[in-house]
From TrEMBL:
Residues 1-31, 48-68 are annotated as: Disordered. GO terms for molecular function: GTP binding; GTPase activity; identical protein binding; microtubule binding. PANTHER family: DYNAMIN, INTERFERON-INDUCED GTP-BINDING PROTEIN MX. The keyword GTP-binding applies. This is MX dynamin like GTPase 1. One of its GO terms (cellular component) is perinuclear region of cytoplasm. Keywords: Cytoplasm, GTP-binding, Nucleotide-binding. Belongs to the TRAFAC class dynamin-like GTPase superfamily. Dynamin/Fzo/YdjA family. Residues 625-714 form the GED domain. It is found in: Cytoplasm. The lineage of its organism: Eukaryota, Metazoa, Chordata, Craniata, Vertebrata. Residues 121-394 form the Dynamin-type G domain. Residues 1-13 have a biased composition (Polar residues).
């Protein structure tokens, strides 16, 4: 043995080992001196810190036999343990400073946004930890956090637990804080964490075995933890136990899918080595929401329970050859239940884990690849989280800005809170009414501001007027068809001593009056349609401007309804007067002569029209029928021109402009009764809640944008 130690080959090998044990991840270790183990937390992150990576770890001498590597001399092992505890202080300070400047703010930024409650509005980058019951999930989190978390049979984690780990400079005391709902409690010692989490879960989810989607936040500050934030989710249960709801399994799956389904979430799936990985529910759920494995990391636990002979199958999984994941797999060995009963400390468990992998025939190579032990997992998760944050920041900032603008616009609909003094309240009411009147005025002029897919009031009214024009054209066609029948009736019943060729003016008047009379009710229907549109628009504006003042809103609606009735009566009176005048058959000579000549010219030169007339008048074709048809068309052409414009003008004047002006005047009259100001400004409780909710959202989004600006300036 002494010969081996003193040989040149072995001395060269030990020199290489000594250099290897001073690799960057261990030169920058934060050593837990109280418990006597090494926990590597700091790893340069080129994407965030722009720090060049140190040279790779030297490879072992190929001449070194496997037997020598597997049966290490005690002297070699002692040297390795000593080297693993060495620290390069200068390198640590340099890298730590750059780490604090670049990487730590990334995690702090997202933690700050989550603390603001931004997750109520949009998803944030996160690492969610999922696993089947008894998968070793709690043990992994304990090893990362350095504190004992709740353990036991059944479902122990009953609420999402945000585990915020913040590394403090060496020598500072442990600090803890737990927050849920509106409660925040400071923790003085790590031993208080277990009981604090159980109490929080009883309050949030109830004392029985139910679960809740409300977040519990646990913050741990210590020199002995990595900078990392994880969200621990309830273990996947298949059978309800005790007082748990019968559908507890479905509830848990629904909660997990809601969180791990977000594209901003990295899924950390914990799977024990002693089960078939293809049958684990946690990995199945991760594959459902992330089929390509782009944002899933696998953590294998309990390697000491692997059946002899199946180790190579585990190695294949770790090397991504079974169920490939983009971010790969890692393996850890944490405290078991017996270790806890034997009071094995977390620090000692880390030591044992390192020794286990160093001396394991199959897993030693995995450790050398950086895919084993809790310290390596801590580095991996920190790197992945920071890269993920940096990748999603542009989209996150864009989402926050969009949500801020939409919420601000929505908040404007609810105005500001009601002032307290009488004079301020009167001015406030005046402003409300002025804004409402301004909206009314803009709507009647066709200049109102539109939201979304809204259509202008004037556009809707114009469509009604277009339908009125169609009604007039159809009436003209009916009048032409009625001429032969009217002429025949005259010939059969009323013709006296007139010789053929002389038309009867009374027959002409009867045809015209009947057609005019048939148009009166359709015109009233157009009036009713328009006044309904106007009333709906005015009520919509009242709801928009007075949404949180139910008395003022009711007063405005009552005035709108009263004025609507008056304007409808007035408009109907004017329309019926117009038709009363239209039943007086009269037209200026020059206008009528022009229209008559136009009709006759069309009858002569329009072949299709001539054929139509012959078809219509075939039963009793006569010059009298043709002449009567020409006169009827000529007169109705002029009457149609009048009615096409006159009816819309009456409606626009009475139903749109007068209606709007009278509503505005009536609303201003509310200001004269100062005793009713308080009554009118009585705020609706639901509206106040909505406004407060929107105000809080705007406030937290404003702070979020401020945090993003501060982060960008680093």
């Amino acid at each position: 043995m002494d010969k081996i130690n003193s040989s040149p080959i072995n001395q060269q090998t030990m020199d290489k080992k000594k250099a290897a044990f001073k690799q960057p991840s261990e030169r920058t270790n934060n050593t837990l001196k109280k418990e006597g183990f090494v926990f590597s937390f700091v790893k340069p992150f080129p994407e965030a810190a722009k720090i060049p990576l140190p040279p790779e770890e030297p490879e072992e001498d190929p001449d070194l036999s496997e037997e020598l590597f597997e049966s290490k001399p005690n002297y070699d092992q002692d040297l390795e343990k000593e080297f693993s505890r060495e620290e390069d202080t200068d390198a640590e300070h340099t890298l730590c400073n750059k780490y604090e400047e670049k990487i730590r703010p990334c995690i702090d930024l997202v933690d700050s946004l989550r603390a603001l409650g931004i997750e109520k509005d949009l998803s944030l980058p996160a690492i969610a930890v999922i696993g089947d019951q008894s998968s070793g999930k709690s043990s992994v989190l304990e090893a990362l956090s350095g504190v004992a978390l709740p353990r036991g049979n059944g479902i122990v984690t009953r609420c999402p637990l945000e585990l915020k780990l913040k590394r403090l400079p060496e020598g500072q005391a442990w600090q803890g804080k737990i927050s849920y709902r509106n409660v925040t409690l400071d923790l003085q010692h790590a031993s208080e964490v277990d009981r604090a989490i159980r109490q929080a879960q009883d309050i949030v989810a109830g004392p029985r075995g139910a679960i809740s989607g409300h977040l519990i936040s646990l913050e741990i500050r210590s020199p002995d933890v990595p900078d990392l934030t994880l969200i621990d989710l309830p273990g996947i249960a298949r059978v309800a136990v005790g007082d748990q709801p019968k559908d507890i399994g479905d509830q848990i799956k629904s909660l997990l899918k809601r969180i791990i389904g977000c594209k901003e979430t990295i899924n950390l799936v914990v799977v024990p080595c002693n089960v078939d990985i293809a049958t684990t529910e946690a990995l199945k759920m991760a594959q459902e929401v992330d089929p390509t494995g782009q944002r899933t990391i696998g953590i294998l636990t309990k390697p000491d329970l692997v059946d002899r002979g199946t180790e190579e199958a585990i190695v294949k999984i770790l090397r991504n050859r079974v169920i490939p994941l983009k971010k790969g797999y890692m393996i850890v060995k944490c405290r078991g239940q017996q270790d806890i009963h034997d009071k094995l400390t977390l620090a000692a468990a880390i030591q044992q884990e390192r020794i286990f992998f160093e001396n394991h025939k199959h897993f030693r190579a995995i450790m050398e690849e950086g895919k084993a032990t809790i310290p390596r997992v801590a580095e991996k998760l920190t790197d992945e989280l920071v890269k993920h944050i940096i990748k999603t920041l542009p989209a996150l900032e864009s989402q926050i800005r969009d949500t801020f603008h939409k919420t601000s616009q929505e908040l404007q609909k609810y105005n500001r809170g009601t002032p307290q003094t009488e004079s301020e309240r009167l001015f406030f009411l005046t402003d409300l009414i002025k804004l409402f009147n301004q909206d009314i005025s803009q709507s009647t002029r066709g200049e109102e501001q539109l939201f979304g897919d809204e259509v202008r009031l004037f556009t809707k009214v114009r469509k009604e007027f277009c339908s009125w024009g169609v009604i007039l054209l159809e009436s003209d066609a009916r009048a032409k068809k009625a001429v032969p029948g009217k002429v025949c009736k005259y010939e059969d019943q009323y013709r006296g001593r007139e010789i053929p060729g002389f038309s009867n003016y009374r027959t002409f008047e009867d045809i015209i009056k009947e057609q005019i009379r048939e148009l009166e009710e359709p015109a009233i229907e157009i009036l009713n349609n328009v006044i309904k549109l106007v009333e709906e628009k005015f009520i919509e504006l009242a709801n928009r401007n007075f949404a949180n003042f139910h008395n003022l809103n009711r007063a405005a609606k009552m005035k709108i309804e009263d004025i609507r009735e008056k304007q409808a009566v007035e408009a109907e009176r004017l329309i019926r007067t117009q038709f009363k005048m239209e039943r007086i058959v009269y037209c200026q000579d020059d206008l009528y002569t022009h229209d008559l000549n136009t009709v006759k010219a069309q009858n002569v030169f329009n072949t299709s029209s001539e054929k139509d007339l012959k078809y219509l008048f075939a039963p009793k074709d006569s010059s009298l029928t043709v002449e009567m048809a020409s006169h009827t068309s000529a007169y109705f052409s002029e009457a149609r021109k009048r009615l096409t414009n006159q009816i819309p003008l009456i409606i626009l004047s009475s139903v749109l402009h007068d209606f709007g002006e009278n509503v505005q005047t009536s609303m201003l009259q509310l200001l004269q009764d100062k005793e009713k100001v308080n009554f009118l400004l009585d705020e609706d409780s639901e509206a106040a809640k909505t406004r407060n909710c929107l105000s809080q959202r705007v406030e937290r989004l404003t702070k979020a944008l401020q945090y993003l600006r501060e982060f960008s300036s680093l």
